[in-house]
Amino acid sequence: MNNLVSAFIGALISLMIMINGTLANFFGNYVSTIIIHIVGLFSIVAVIIISRSKIKIHNQIPLYLYSAGAIGVFTVLFNNFGFSILGVSIPLALGLLGQSLTSIIIDHFGLLGMKVDKFNKKKYIGLSLIILGIFIMTIS
Questions:
Q1: DSSP character for 111?
Q2: Number of H helices and number of E strands within the chain?
Q3: 3-state secondary structure 62-73
């Protein structure tokens, strides 16, 4: 089930890049990023109201965990920049490469409180396939 949900998330990210990039073509990168996040805020507020979830504030969590919102803003903004020049597939493929490399580093060193999962040679195969795919997609 988790694999299916992850594949669905991948499809949503592709749609998101296309829709966000198109919106950026109309409004510009900065205004579209504001619009995207305001709509996102209203969407999650609606989900919270419908699900009757409670918002809990925790004073004990590390301050850096709140940076996820800023990371989301910059992810949308940089994808919008890339979309206008590269389309959907190249930013998505490069994003996958960046996610893979970053997650391997986080896992290998156990950064940010994650369980250590040392780098092994099998991961070279996955990274090589991603890099090869990007290379093939970019040569015209």
A1: G
A2: 5, 0
A3: CHHHHHHHHHHH
